[in-house]
Specification:
The chain is an alpha+beta fold. Helices cover 16% and strands 38% of the residues.
Length: 262
């Protein structure tokens, strides 16, 4: 899963930054120090910001499949490397490559319009009003939970298992596990159901029950669809995303370490 970049040549870098002042300042300094290439001609894109900006950059560069090396100029920075201006070329040459596949969401709203979105972390369903949501959950066409009364539910990738999924008390998934997590959000009934671990090839379908009374929205990263009636989620193995991490601090190690944090 982890492959270092070729070390015989100096990688051409394209720097991009979020609109945070510290990220924009870093963009100015780093591009002056290491040069700035167009993304089309670059070997590596260096994203300066937080986790949200990393996700934005991955979405924006889907077609190019360029590896992204992030440096934290935001808040959380779980998907980012530590910020340092020295020895950047050497760090990138020695970096470990992590490849992931996003989730594909197909959502149909009450007007019978189909919406599609890709999610690197998770696809989440959320109640829109004070009323709890009622969902029927099917896996590969078979209903597994006839009526889930909850604030919502989510399906996450291994890379996203330490994000919203973990806050909703879902399991952390090793990157090599070839699994997805299905996690309820504040489940009221069945109260003791904590979700499920699924094959990465599973197709998850949510049907919204009593949608007129209990409207639900579906969110795939930066795509939100209101008043959905059905939502289907499946891994899209045809899309491969690459992130670079400093040697010894790859995403797989971070996911593992998160399970032992106190």
């Amino acid at each position: 899963m982890d492959n270092s970049l070729p070390t015989k040549q100096t990688p051409r870098l394209a720097f991009t930054a979020s609109d945070r002042p510290e990220a924009e300042e870093a963009l100015t300094r780093l591009s002056a120090r290491y040069g700035q290439h167009d993304e089309a001609a670059a070997d590596v894109i260096v994203a300066l910001g937080g986790d949200g900006f990393m996700l934005e950059t991955l979405h924006r560069t889907l077609a190019s499949a360029k590896p992204i090396y992030g440096m934290n100029r935001g808040s959380v920075g779980f998907l980012m490397n530590d910020y340092a201006e020295e020895d950047l070329i050497e760090r990138i040459k020695a970096a470990e490559r992590t490849t992931i596949h996003p989730l594909s969401m197909s959502a149909i709203d009450r007007r019978r319009i189909q919406h599609r979105g890709l999610a690197i972390n998770e696809v989440s369903l959320l109640r829109q009003t004070r009323q709890t949501a009622k969902l029927r959950v099917s896996i590969d066409g078979k209903a597994r939970v006839e009526e889930l009364v909850c604030d919502g539910a989510l399906v996450c990738t291994p890379a996203g298992s330490t994000a919203y999924n973990l806050s909703a008390h879902g399991p952390i998934i090793p990157l090599t596990a070839k699994a997805l997590a299905l996690t309820p959000i504040s489940a009221f009934r069945p109260r003791r159901w904590r979700g499920a671990l699924l094959s990465h090839e599973a197709r998850v379908t949510f049907e919204i029950l009593e949608g007129d009374k209990r409207p639900v929205s579906a969110v795939a990263d930066n795509v939100e669809v209101r008043n959905v009636v059905t939502v289907e989620v499946v891994e899209d193995a045809s899309i491969t995303l690459s992130m670079l991490f400093d040697a010894g601090r790859g995403l797989e190690e971070r996911v593992l370490a998160e399970q032992f944090s106190v």
